[in-house]
Every structure is written in C-alpha cells, then in structure tokens.
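Posting this for the archive.
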Amino acid sequence: MAQNSHRCCTLNLNVMATVKLEWHRKTVDQKLIKGEFISQQMATNVAEYPTPNPSLADLDAALDDLRKKAVAALAGGYALTYANNQAEKVLDGIISQLMSYVQNASGGVEAIILKSGMNVRKTPKPVPDPLQVENLDAFPTRSQGEVQLTWDSLDNSPYYQVEQWKEDNAGNGFWDKIATISKPKYTVTGLTTGTVYRFRVAGLGKDDVLGPYSQEATSVAP
C-alpha cells in the first residue's frame, strides 16, 4: 500500500537573539537615560564590544548635545525647538548604527546583547507539530453517493487534510487529498453507490506541516 510522506518540523533550540529597543517610542528624557546606560554598559564590557561603531565618544557627545538643547528648547521658539529636534535625530542615527553593531558583535547571543545595555526581542515559542487525529469515523448519509466523516478536534491544529484511497488507470493505489478544512467533519460527495471507500485525516499545522495520519475509516456509499 502506498503511503504519502509528510514533512516534520524540527524545533530550533539555537535561535539567534535580536536587539530590540523600540527607540522611536521613547521621549527625549527616556532616550537620554537609556543612551547613558548603553554608553556605560558598553564601556564596562569592552571585551565584548572593543570597537563600537559609531564610537562611544560620538554617543556621549550626541547625548550631551541633546541634553543641552532640550533644556534650551524649554524657553520656546522655533530656532531652539528646531535645534533640539536636529540633535535628537543625530542621537537616533547613532543608536540605530550601534544596534547593528551590537547585533553583529554579539553573534545573536542574548547574554552578550544584554551586556550592551540594549534589550532583546522576545523569541516566539516554537509551534509544535499537530497531534494525531483520533476516532475518525465514516458512515453513509441519507443522500445518495455521500459519506460523512467525523473525528476528534485537535487543539493545536487549525486545519485538517482529508484523503481518500484511489486507484489510477493502471490499478495503482494512492492516497489523494480531497479537502483541507477547519472543522472536524467533512461530507464526501459524488461517490458511486454500493462502493466501499477508505479515508484518513491528518492535522495541518504551521507552514503546512502534516501531523500523523489517523487510522483508516471505511464506508459504503449509499
């Protein structure tokens, strides 16, 4: 009997960590505080970050410039506000480049990223493969040429793949996919009255990964 192969997903336990700051959401005061912390942390952990690009001197200068201009801007006026905004853009650019530097220098290792004073993006939990479909049942309906399939629903599978055993013109048997559905039931139509049919079902997970097939179920078409 021919069997369809199904792909299996392998959980990657060595997922690369990613730098995350959400810098654009921070106020000027928050940027100054976080920027100073990053400068201190990278200076302390020079073994992990020997050649920051841009340099920490550039970062400190941008922080100092923004701090002065933010205070001056409190007096109001277009010129002082504009100068404050420009100083903030300079700091934003330096931080953006340092994020790239930290990502590369850390090799994506979470512990090393944290030593820079930056944060780490949370890694989504891997999605497990669908479990095996249980209690598949096939029975004739009251309509001619129709068979009803039902099975237990799976909590971790949003879709199901329904297959029917068929034969080609040369008499070779194979499993043919006849439906992809989201509910744990399916009505097969267009069957030949008096003929016995075989079916199986598998959960369909993320990236079209098929779980283990159910046991076969058979029914005669009414």
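The mean pLDDT is 90. The radius of gyration is 31 Å.
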